[in-house]
Amino acid sequence: MKKPAPIALPEVRKYNSQDKVLVAVDCIIFGFDPNKEELQLLLIRRDFQPEKGKWSLMGGFLKADETAEAAARRVLRKLTGLQNVYMEQLDVFSKIDRDPAARTISVAYFALISTDEHDKELIKKYSASWVDLSKRPALIFDHDQMVNKAISRLRYKASIKPIGFELLPEKFTMRQLQKLHEEIFDEKLDKRNFSKKMYSYGFLERLKEKDKGSSRKGSYLYRFNKDNYQEKNGNWIDYRNR
Fold this sequence. Notes:
By secondary structure, the chain is of the alpha+beta class. The chain has helices at residues 9-16, 68-80, 120-125, 143-160, 174-185, 191-201, 226-233; strands spanning 22-33, 38-45, 55-56, 58-61, 86-93, 104-114, 128-132, 172-173, 204-211, 219-224. It starts with 8 loop residues before the first helix and ends in a 9-residue tail after the last helix. The mean pLDDT is 88.
């Protein structure tokens, strides 16, 4: 890669005279527990001041040799062991006094993962916990604002694209799919109408296998057919197999 030409000394001095501001990334990590049928948020207990011992999103500071997205993926991998997951930039939070320790701007990202796939030992290592979204505690700084904005973005995205499948295991029941949508949109859905609507999209595939854990008769398992989706709607990025 070709290095940029050096900047003339007077121009460098103009840079040096500017205020220095820290840049951080914070990750809003959503997961869905198919057994509890709850939409969850991955939180940590902050282990340093200010606000030591309080609940926080997972974050870190931007390094000189990485982009904001690379920093967010580093933080996500550090906490969950996962690399290929759905993640997108949410917003920039720049309130002057948002961090009492120093002037810090945060670039927030939200990620969707299946709770069956992450590294549970890493979560223990960093004193992190999955917390039901509906029962989440108060968070430090402006992290509650970040979460609320991420929920709104998730609802919008889920209304136009089937990104909710990123939160489910590869095989799931119709009940789990419905419960996921009820959790995302915070409303009860009619079972028959929901199933009919899902089938009408053409990307839901019923398998011969059954989940015997829900009842003696068992419930059929389904999976998201990416090929069918792409045929009708264009490219689908398979984050889990990138």
